[in-house]
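Both lines are given unchanged directly below:

***
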Amino acid sequence: MAMLPFAAIFAQDLIVTNNNDSLNCKIIQISGDYVYFCFIHENKVRKTTIPTMIVQYYKYDYFEDNDLLSKLIVRKKPEYSRWRLNINGGWSNRTRQVSTFIHPDDRALSRQLKSGYNYSLDATCFFIEALGVGLKYDFYKTSGSHWIYETDISIAFIGPFFALRFFDHSKTNCLIMNFGIGRVNFNEIGKAYGIAYSGKESTVGIVADMSYDIALSKYLYLGFQISYLPGKITEFDLFDNKNRYVRRIVLENEYLTLSRFNLGFGFRFYL
């Protein structure tokens, strides 16, 4: 009985053809007109089929067990974590003052409103080790007051993003970079000369994150993150103290800048 050249490999099952050629292999399935099997060639697993009409005989577990084959043909779980959940918080700085209701001379209030706090939540699914997609929610809030003004500003971003991941040489710590686009909601509530008002608007914005994650355990990481979220609006809706619509404010020859930098840290959960 002739032995096919590629059959001199590690295997467990036997297939004999009508030409009396024998195949050392691992039979995966016998279905319809074909026998599906795999074999090892040049230390790699190859998968193929053979028509049942040319198979004279086959037998499972014909050869002695060999752990090498079973280890190679079993699909291993990826060595990297597919899911990353991020909880992050910290300090934010606006790139320019944005409140329409503040007189340019009110520098003290302007400086108060340039900084605030932020928190963000996002989830990422990596379909390969270095590339994934995710969804982010980022919230920023600041407030300030001056003798005739009180104001509260919040800016929220929500949207999808692409993620890039780069592990260090030990495959432990990693650098994460996210780039996304989504919806930005601007909301300002305050008082001017004792009269309450609110301003609201939604627009499209983008986000760019860079985070370095340090492993505390297999599933828990500590991360440090910097983000940039640019955006602007040129008009918004004005409401009175009972949240009734007043009118549409159109900014001529100017705009409200929503852009800000975030610095923060938080915990990452790798699953």
About this structure: The domain at 5-73 is CATH 2.30.30.100 (SH3 type barrels.).
